[in-house]
Amino acid sequence: MKLKSSKVNEFRLWGLLLTMGGMLLMIVGLAGIVFDWGSAGKIMAVTFMFIGAIAMLGSMGIYFWAGMMSTSATVIECPECGKPTKMIGKTDRCMFCKTILSMDPKHDPNASAS
User: Which residue ranges traverse the bilayer (predicted)?
Assistant: First the structure.
């Protein structure tokens, strides 16, 4: 369970992956022009540049969405580490120590089953 993170950090991770993927696609597309592969290289460059630009725009959208969610998230103090963390939805994880948090007692995994 160490690989799980808070929802805001998960959105930021996907935004970062799309940014890096889009940049990588653009670099691969540039190889068609740099190594002078003729008309096939130009077609490859245009195709990969277009797909990379779409990935970068998707990344921008995800970062914007994560930022909007972050501004409206509930800030609570983590009972485990004591740091303030943002919570989205009924359950979330601490941004620092990854403890499962819940505002609703019936969704609380730390509550004792009586």
Answer: 12-37, 43-66
Report yes or no: 1 and 89 within 8 Å, Cβ to Cβ. no
Domain boundaries along the sequence of the chain? 1-72, 74-107
Stated pTM of the model: 0.77
Confidence tier at 114 by pLDDT (50, 70, 90): very low
Query: Which is nearest to 52 in space by CA: 75, 21, 90?
Result: 21
Q: State the Cα–Cα distance between residues 55 and 7, nearest whole angstrom.
A: 21
